[in-house]
Here is the input.
Amino acid sequence: MGFARFCLFLMFVSSMVFMASCSKTDGKKESLGRGLKDAYKGDFLIGAALGRPYILGQDSVADMLIKKHFNTISPENDMKCELIHPEWNKYYFDIADKFVELGKENNQFLLGHTLVWHSQLAPFVTKITSADSLRLFMKEHISTIVGRYKGKINAWDVVNEALNEDGTMRKSIFYNLLGDQYIIDAFRLAQTADPKAELYYNDYNIEQPAKRKGAIELIKKIQAAGIRIDGVGIQGHWSIRGLPLEDIEQSILDYSALGLKVMLTELDITVLPNPWDLRGADVNQNFEGSAMMNPYPQGLPDSMQVKLAMEYESLFDLLVKHKDKVSRVTFWGVNDESSWLNGWPIRGRTNYPLLFDRNYQPKPAYYRVMSVKDEEKRP
Ligand code: 9MR
Here is the structure.
C-alpha cells in the first residue's frame, strides 16, 4: 500500500470507527446494497459458519446479514458426531434439517461439517475397542447422515484434522484401530452415499510445510485408491501478528496441482495474545481474569483495527490473485461476539477476529476486503 493510499485509509478507518461507535444501524438498512458475496462473485464463494442461534433464525438483523453477505454456510457445531449421533441408534437431525432449510431459502451452497473427526465424538464411539465395531460405526454414521441429505448438502468435510503438526498421522481412535485405511474408507462411504456431493479433507495449519507435506501424501493415497476427493480445506485460524502468506500461496499452488479445489474453510484472525506466545508460558496455566491476556475488553483500539484490516486486505489480495484455484472462503462465525475465539484458548475474553462487530456492523477490515475488489477494477 502506497503512503497516500495508507493515509486515505487511516482517515477512512477513523470515520468508520466513529460511525460504528455512534450508531447501531437497523437491520433493514444493512440489507441494502451489495454484500461480500456480490463483490467476490465469479471469484469464489464467501461463507460463514453458523452457530445454533443463527440456524434457528433467532436474530433478524443477523438473518439479514447472513443472507446479504454469504452464498455458502457451514454448521459450526450441529453436525458433529456428539450432537447429531449421540448414541448407536439415535440420531438428532432437527437442527441439521433447519440448517438445510435455511440454506435452501437463501440459495446458499451447503457444507456438511464434519463426518470423521477425533474430537466431539459421542461417548459411545470413544468406548469402541475393536476395528470391526469402529468400521461399523463409520459405515452407519456416514451412510445415514450423507444419505439423509443426499442432493441437499452440496459438500462434506469427510475427514477433519487427521494430521499432527509434523505431518504424521494423528494417533486418533480411527488411526489406532484402523490405520491409514480409515481415511480411504471414509471417502468411499461418503461417495457411495451421495455420488454427486463434493468431498473434502479439512485441517488447520496445513499451509505449514511439514503438515502440508503430510496432507499431500494423504491426498495422494486417497487418489491412488481410486477414490474421489474434490477439495482441501485450509482452516485459516490465524493471528494479527502476521499471516503466513508465502506458505498460504505455496499451499494453494501445491494442492491445486493435485487437481483439487482449494478453500479457506474456517477463517478468523485473532487479535489477542496466546499463552504460547509468552516465553515459557504453560498453556495449562490459569490465565482467566488476567488483564494482560484480555487487553481490549471495552473495544479494539483504532491502531489494531487498522492492523487487522491490513492483514485481511493482504490475504484477500492473495486469494484474488489465485481465484482460478480458490473456490471458497468461509469465515468461522458471523460476528465478533459469536466467535469461538472469545472462549479459546482462554475462556471469557473479548476478541475481534471477524469482519462484523458485536452490533453486526461492518468493521474497517470489512471495507478493506470489499475495496480489494474495487481497486482491482481501477485502471
Ligand atoms: O467453533 C467451534 C466451537 O464452538 C466448538 O466448541 C469447538 C468444538 O466442537 O469446535 C469449534 O469449531 C472447530 C471446527 O469444528 C474444526 N476446526 C477447529 C474449529 C475451532 O475449534
Q: What stands out?
A: The chain has one domain: 44-272+283-376. The mean pLDDT is 91. The pocket of 9MR is lined by residues 76-77, 80, 120, 160, 235, 266, 340 (CB under 6 Å). Strands lie at 45-50, 72-75, 109-117, 155-160, 198-203, 231-234, 237-239, 261-270, 326-331.
